[in-house]
Specification:
The protein is 36% helix and 20% strand. By secondary structure, the chain is α/β, with parallel strands linked by helices.
Length: 538
């Protein structure tokens, strides 16, 4: 027999929490199912989070695609597709597949050795398409394997940290791998190879369809575009190589060296060229006579980011393709700590590198043909306003050394008020002395006319000039005209000119290169030995 005390203790133990339901009660199936669903949902959430973290940390692969180095990455996405990021120009998106994973391809850099190999061996261009296709397949396979390891490791590690049970970790890893396989199968089933015919551009590439042409015509005339593509991808390398082989000039300590550039028109290669010239010629100040942009949109402002790091103070004036927003963006660069960026407008002078420089922004904003230009009348009117400020400066005993304007018509109005005036706009370099002894120097396009370079039969040349001014009198002593081949060309020329070479109505005649010049006095550089400019090929 069981004593009453033993019976009471047994009853209390049975009724303790967690010791099971009281005698006579039945389990509740609905409550168990809810707990099971919650556990399953928690496991799925942990699995997805771990898989995402795994992809984020190690789910990418660096692989060459033709002459370009890229980074391929898988990212969770509701819409899928492929995004190709081409910094700093922008991106293009392809509706290549419909799956909860997006393929990101970042174009990191152009490999100069592989590009040079294409230049030196044009016969390889015919096999470029197969090479690129093979590179993409190889990179995609490598990315798939790496992504599988990433999601398996990430989900398993997170599940082990949360649940502290190896079986749950294995379940999370298996679930993540199954989800990845399902996503890959969905992407393969919805693969759309024709998506390359209808890409969506963003950033600076938004103008690419108008410049490059309709994608369907590219597909039907691939042979023609293949050759143009080869020229485009090798262009930057050629220009880089050309600038690296330019002869270095050792300037006299008593000279101030000014680099005159203009009409970059969104060509990113121009920044490397300018930086190279600044280093090789020991430039004191860069003067940009405008048209840095193409359309003056806010999306283009990121193109200006390299300006503070060019290695010399940067003085800029607005061109007819630069908007008020562009001018504001350049001005903001000058507000950064340590930045030496100056905007010229309304004749307000700035003192840079011992020079007093004044300029006036272009009164016209004509980013495309939808805007009717006001013509030379507006340029002359604003040029006369600039001339008025120059007279006031001279009367105040603070004369200006260099006047700057984008359009030569505006710049001509300063004749007789400054010894030197700089302009651009025409994409055609020329130098002449105006009737009242002011020298007008019009720069060609330092960006090779930008994207417009592919419109004509012959590519536009890349042009810049180095001006040597006496440090005491701030008068022009000599200048070097630097010319690089445009798209598909690699020739580089440097021609020396002396002020006496140019008289009213005459054209300058070339002089020897700076690499063979003799030691010059501070007032008058002596003629160099050679009579022909150098050329360089990568």
């Amino acid at each position: 027999m069981i004593s009453p005390v033993t019976a009471r203790l047994t009853t209390r133990l049975r009724r303790r929490p967690g010791s099971g339901p009281p005698s006579g009660s039945e389990p509740r199936p609905g409550s168990d199912r809810r707990r099971a669903w919650r556990r399953a949902a928690g496991l799925v959430a942990v699995t997805l989070l771990g898989a995402w973290l795994g992809l984020l940390v190690v789910g990418n692969v660096r692989t060459p695609v033709g002459p370009v180095d890229t980074t391929m990455t898988l990212r969770p996405s509701l819409t899928g597709g492929t995004k190709v990021n081409i910094s700093p120009l922008g991106a293009l998106e392809l509706r290549s597949h419909a799956a909860p994973l997006r393929l990101d391809v970042d174009v990191d850099q152009l490999d100069q050795e592989r590009s040079a190999a294409l230049v030196n061996h044009p016969e390889r261009i015919e096999g470029l398409e197969d090479e690129i296709a093979g590179d993409v397949r190889s990179g995609a396979l490598d990315l798939g394997l790496r992504s599988a390891v990433a999601v398996l490791t990430g989900s398993g590690a997170l599940a082990l940290a949360v649940y502290r049970r190896p079986r749950r970790a294995l379940a999370a890893g298996g679930l993540s791998l199954a989800l990845l396989v399902a996503c890959a199968a969905t992407a393969a089933a919805t693969w759309n190879p024709k998506s390359v015919l209808e890409p969506r551009f963003s950033g600076l590439l938004a103008s690419a369809p108008q410049v490059v042409g309709d994608a369907r015509s590219i597909a039907t005339e691939f042979d023609v575009y293949q050759k143009e593509l080869a020229r485009l991808v090798t262009n930057v390398t050629k220009l880089y190589d050309a600038t690296s082989t330019l002869p270095a000039y050792q300037p006299d300590p008593s000279t101030t060296r000014v680099l005159h550039v203009s009409d970059i028109h969104l060509n990113p290669a121009a920044w490397h060229i300018i930086r190279s010239l600044v280093e090789q010629y020991d430039i004191d100040v860069i003067i940009d006579t405008g048209d840095t942009m193409d359309h003056g949109t806010a999306a283009e402002n990121g193109f200006l980011d390299p300006v503070p790091d060019l290695g010399a103070p940067y003085v800029w004036v607005r061109g007819n393709h630069d908007s008020a927003a562009t001018q504001k963006a350049v001005g903001k660069l000058g507000e950064r700590r340590g930045a030496r960026v100056h905007v010229l407008d309304s004749g307000v002078p700035v003192n840079v590198a011992g020079l007093r420089i004044s300029g006036w922004g272009d009164p016209q904003f004509t980013p495309d043909r939808s805007v009717a230009p006001e013509g030379d009348r507006a340029e002359r009117a604003e040029g006369r306003k600039l001339a008025g400020t120059l007279r006031a400066q001279r009367a105040a005993g603070t004369p200006v050394d260099i006047a700057v304007g984008h359009n030569p018509v505006l710049a001509e109005q300063t004749d007789g008020l400054v010894p030197l005036v700089l302009a651009g706009h025409t994409h055609n370099r020329r130098t002449r002395v105006l009737p009242h002894d002011t020298r007008l120097m019009v720069q060609g396009s330092t960006g090779g006319s930008g994207l417009r370079a592919v419109e004509g039969e012959k590519p536009d040349k890349v042009q810049a000039s180095v001006l040597y001014l006496d440090r005491d009198s701030d008068r022009l002593q000599a200048w070097d005209e630097i010319t690089l081949g445009g798209l598909g060309l690699s020739k580089a020329e440097v021609a020396r000119h002396l002020p006496d070479d140019v008289r009213p109505g005459s054209s300058p005649r070339p002089s020897p290169s700076p690499s063979q010049s003799q030691t010059r006095s501070s007032r008058s550089p002596s003629p160099p030995q050679s009579s022909r400019p150098p050329s360089a090929s990568p």
